[in-house]
Amino acid sequence: MTMQEFINLIWTVDPQAVKYDSMGEKGGSYTVFSPYRVKPLYASGGVSESTAFVQVDYFTQKDNDPKAAAFFDAFISDDNVTVSYHIDFENDTRYIHHIFDCEVICRGAV
Protein backbone atom coordinates (compact mmCIF):
# COMPACT_ATOMS: atom_id res chain seq x y z
CA MET A 1 0.00 0.00 0.00
CA THR A 2 1.11 3.56 -0.60
CA MET A 3 0.12 6.57 1.47
CA GLN A 4 -2.06 7.74 -1.43
CA GLU A 5 -3.85 4.36 -1.47
CA PHE A 6 -4.55 4.78 2.25
CA ILE A 7 -5.93 8.29 1.63
CA ASN A 8 -8.08 6.83 -1.16
CA LEU A 9 -9.40 4.28 1.37
CA ILE A 10 -10.39 7.17 3.66
CA TRP A 11 -12.07 8.92 0.72
CA THR A 12 -14.15 5.80 -0.08
CA VAL A 13 -15.88 6.38 3.27
CA ASP A 14 -15.83 10.19 3.26
CA PRO A 15 -14.91 11.91 -0.02
CA GLN A 16 -14.84 15.26 1.82
CA ALA A 17 -12.10 14.18 4.27
CA VAL A 18 -9.20 16.64 4.52
CA LYS A 19 -5.63 16.51 5.76
CA TYR A 20 -4.81 18.23 9.07
CA ASP A 21 -7.66 20.72 9.47
CA SER A 22 -11.22 21.18 8.35
CA MET A 23 -11.70 24.89 7.74
CA GLY A 24 -14.98 26.74 7.36
CA GLU A 25 -18.49 25.46 7.97
CA LYS A 26 -18.33 21.99 9.45
CA GLY A 27 -21.99 21.02 9.25
CA GLY A 28 -23.24 17.82 10.84
CA SER A 29 -20.10 15.72 10.43
CA TYR A 30 -16.56 15.93 9.06
CA THR A 31 -13.34 13.93 8.79
CA VAL A 32 -9.74 14.98 9.28
CA PHE A 33 -6.65 12.78 8.86
CA SER A 34 -3.19 13.56 10.18
CA PRO A 35 -0.01 11.58 9.46
CA TYR A 36 2.23 12.01 12.50
CA ARG A 37 5.12 9.52 12.33
CA VAL A 38 6.96 7.23 9.92
CA LYS A 39 9.05 4.23 10.91
CA PRO A 40 11.20 2.95 7.99
CA LEU A 41 12.45 -0.64 7.69
CA TYR A 42 15.83 -0.90 6.00
CA ALA A 43 16.96 -3.90 3.93
CA SER A 44 19.59 -4.35 1.22
CA GLY A 45 20.91 -0.83 1.67
CA GLY A 46 17.59 0.99 1.39
CA VAL A 47 14.10 1.39 2.76
CA SER A 48 12.12 -1.71 1.86
CA GLU A 49 8.91 -0.67 3.59
CA SER A 50 7.67 1.83 6.16
CA THR A 51 5.03 2.01 8.80
CA ALA A 52 3.14 5.29 8.62
CA PHE A 53 1.16 6.35 11.67
CA VAL A 54 -2.00 8.28 10.76
CA GLN A 55 -4.80 9.49 12.98
CA VAL A 56 -8.21 9.67 11.35
CA ASP A 57 -10.75 11.77 13.26
CA TYR A 58 -14.44 11.60 12.44
CA PHE A 59 -16.69 14.16 14.16
CA THR A 60 -20.45 13.71 14.18
CA GLN A 61 -23.45 14.78 16.21
CA LYS A 62 -25.37 11.57 15.44
CA ASP A 63 -25.23 8.67 17.87
CA ASN A 64 -24.46 5.34 16.16
CA ASP A 65 -23.45 7.14 12.97
CA PRO A 66 -23.01 4.50 10.22
CA LYS A 67 -20.03 6.36 8.77
CA ALA A 68 -18.02 5.65 11.95
CA ALA A 69 -18.73 1.94 11.50
CA ALA A 70 -17.81 2.20 7.80
CA PHE A 71 -14.41 3.68 8.70
CA PHE A 72 -13.72 0.88 11.18
CA ASP A 73 -14.81 -1.78 8.68
CA ALA A 74 -12.65 -0.28 5.92
CA PHE A 75 -9.56 -0.22 8.14
CA ILE A 76 -9.91 -3.73 9.58
CA SER A 77 -10.64 -5.17 6.13
CA ASP A 78 -7.26 -4.08 4.74
CA ASP A 79 -4.29 -6.33 5.54
CA ASN A 80 -1.93 -3.33 5.43
CA VAL A 81 -3.72 -1.38 8.17
CA THR A 82 -3.99 -1.93 11.91
CA VAL A 83 -6.29 0.33 13.89
CA SER A 84 -6.98 1.30 17.46
CA TYR A 85 -10.44 2.82 17.84
CA HIS A 86 -11.55 5.26 20.56
CA ILE A 87 -14.65 7.38 21.07
CA ASP A 88 -14.79 10.69 22.95
CA PHE A 89 -17.65 13.12 23.53
CA GLU A 90 -16.75 16.80 23.37
CA ASN A 91 -18.98 18.75 25.74
CA ASP A 92 -18.13 22.16 24.32
CA THR A 93 -19.00 21.35 20.68
CA ARG A 94 -21.47 18.48 21.33
CA TYR A 95 -19.59 16.36 18.78
CA ILE A 96 -18.96 12.65 19.16
CA HIS A 97 -15.29 12.24 18.23
CA HIS A 98 -14.38 8.91 16.65
CA ILE A 99 -10.60 8.45 16.76
CA PHE A 100 -8.97 5.87 14.49
CA ASP A 101 -5.27 5.56 15.26
CA CYS A 102 -3.92 3.68 12.22
CA GLU A 103 -0.61 2.03 11.39
CA VAL A 104 -0.21 1.66 7.62
CA ILE A 105 2.36 -0.67 6.07
CA CYS A 106 3.69 1.14 2.99
CA ARG A 107 5.94 -0.13 0.21
CA GLY A 108 9.31 1.64 0.31
CA ALA A 109 9.72 5.07 1.83
CA VAL A 110 6.66 7.16 2.60
What does this protein look like?
- The protein has 110 residues and is α+β, with helices and mostly antiparallel strands.
- The chain has a single domain (3-18, 28-107), classed as STM4215-like.
- It contains two helices and five strands; from the N terminus they run H-E-E-E-H-E-E.
- It has a five-stranded mixed β-sheet with strand order 1-2-3-5-4, covered by helices on one side.
- The termini are close together.
Descriptors:
alpha+beta; 110 residues; elongated; STM4215-like; five-stranded mixed β-sheet
Report the sheet with the most strands, covering strand number, pairing sense and barrel closure.
Answer: 5 strands, mixed
Indicate the structural class. alpha+beta
Which fold does the CATH topology refer to? STM4215-like
Give the SSE order as H and E letters.
Answer: HEEEHEE
Sheet with the most strands: spatial strand order: 1-2-3-5-4
Q: Quick gist of this model?
A:
This protein has 110 residues and is an alpha+beta fold. The protein has helices at residues 3-13, 66-76; strands spanning 18-19, 29-43, 46-60, 81-90, 95-107.
Write the layout of secondary structure elements.
Elements: H1 3-13, E1 18-19, E2 29-43, E3 46-60, H2 66-76, E4 81-90, E5 95-107
Parallel strand pairs: 1-2
Antiparallel strand pairs: 2-3, 3-5, 4-5
